[in-house]
Amino acid sequence: MSKSHSVWVSRPLFPEVLASLARYVELSVENKETKRTPEQLHEKLAAVDGAIVGLSDRIEASVLAGNRRLRVIANLGVGYNNLDLPALTAAGILATNTPDVLTQTTADYAWALMLAAARRVSSAERWLRAGRWRGGMRFDDWLGVDVHGKTLGILGMGRIGQAVARRAVGFDMRVIYHNRSRLPEATERECRAEWVEKADLLKRSDHLVLVLPYSAQNHHAIGAAELAQMKPTAVLVNIARGGIVDDAALAAALREGTLAAAGLDVFEGEPSVNPALRELENAVLSPHIASASADTRRAMAQLAADNLLAALGYGPNAGHPPSLLNPQLLGGQGGET
Ligand code: DGY
């Protein structure tokens, strides 16, 4: 049976997810993730009715120029700073993301980075693998900083921030947070989290986890001035987005010992990583994998596929993509999701 809609998928996805798409639409799937130029993206999108894209695909106004065919962009990720949402909305193109399904897995990973950075796990493993454990280790070698009983700070208290906070109970930590808007009291109680000013958060946190979305206002929300306010024994964890931290300033703080350690999953200009960070033993670095458990990546891919099919009028949610970022195009409330 010939299919009336064509869809481009900018990277390989799980076979069962692709099969769920192929039931309804003509598919073209790239066999690897690549950073494409705006011209390349323009050409790909001109030929299809819908696309599944990821963080490395920057869907800007120039990429959409003159496109009269495209109806939906389904983003693989909850963060969507790779999409120019106003431009998509102005062009009448539906945009979707993948919230909720990754909340718990991403919160787990914040803890993995916090614990690894605080207790020097990566550095110790590199040392061991290099065959340097030959006896003669001192009792005061490999000293890290404790996590239990300390103060956990969270900058950005959306779904993932709250999930990070809930995990602190078992570590007997005090939780403080800063967010543009304060959480309802009941949620604060449930998360055992206290709202504080950003300056207090910086000063008081023993472990500071960044979970805020990227925006022009949040660019370098943690720069040299903010790092200077933190304790020299503190650990910084960034699972949010590259660009929220000034990576060069962070590398300087870690090198000079004004900050104890960092766990970083996201970087300015990734996949490039500031060479100064790569050299530091007190930085635990990973390639943007906070949501990468098998179950969660599969759920994200399926949600992106469900969003896309619904936008094109197929499947159980036909006409109602489950996580639509510009509902005003379908007569719903516009703005924040
Ligand atoms: C997200 O979902 O925003 C993750 O960071 C993957 O991009």
What does the secondary structure layout of this molecule look like, with pairings?
Layout: E1 6-9, H1 15-22, E2 26-29, H2 38-46, E3 50-53, H3 61-64, E4 72-75, H4 85-90, E5 94-96, H5 103-118, H6 121-129, E6 151-155, H7 159-166, E7 174-178, H8 185-191, E8 193-195, H9 198-204, E9 207-210, H10 224-228, E10 235-238, H11 247-256, E11 261-264, H12 275-278, E12 283-285, H13 294-311
Parallel strand pairs: 1-2, 1-3, 3-4, 4-5, 6-7, 6-9, 7-8, 9-10, 10-11, 11-12
Helix pairs in contact: 1-13, 5-7
Summarize the structure.
The protein is of the alpha/beta class and 337 residues long.
Features:
Rossmann fold, alpha/beta, globular, 2 domains, binds (2R)-2,3-dihydroxypropanoic acid, 33% helix, 337 residues, 12 strands
